[in-house]
Amino acid sequence: MGIIRRPNRRQILKTTMALAATGALPARAGALPHEPSRTAAFPHIDASLRSAVGAQEVPGVVAIAATENGILYEGVFGKFPNLKVVLMESGVSWLPAFMWRANKTWRGVRVEVPWIDREPAAIMRDHIRLTTQPFDSPPDAAGVADIIEMIGSDRMLLFASDYPHWQFDGDDAIPPHLPAGIVSRMCADNPLETFPRLKLAA
Description:
The protein is mainly alpha-helical. It has helices spanning 9-22, 43-52, 58-73, 76-79, 95-109, 120-127, 141-151, 180-194, 198-201; strands spanning 85-87, 128-131, 157-158. The chain has a 3-stranded parallel beta sheet. The protein starts with 8 loop residues before the first helix and ends with a helix.
């Protein structure tokens, strides 16, 4: 017969942070699981999140969020300050709500993770990159602008064509309604900053 060990505080914290970041668990004592969406003030983003994270995609988004939380809260970026993590084919519209939830949770439990010395969203902006295929954004320019504004960085997006798959979102490899400055960065500057070895070949 195996021994069942009680999980330690670190394991409990890690699991709680992962669940709280995905919205599956309230991030504070007394919070109700049926709280309204934090993006309700931005109806196109709220609609985009509900449509983008459909039933078949929920496990993927939860896995991505749990992985990102684990890397972040275990202090990986503190130990490896130059590390960049690229999330491919993960979508984009879930990120603002995830960043908000991570910051909110961290403020409540920061004494438990003293090695996280600044807001998780700031760490994500420095170390996490997402590809733009698929770009699960609202269909209008205002919605895309809201997502970009809430992410708060022009360095997080990397161009992706979904090659070698024959299909990709929309009619163009570049997602619609992205500002020209973002497109320029995601096609040139961001890849060079993310993969410094590319500069040697240039």
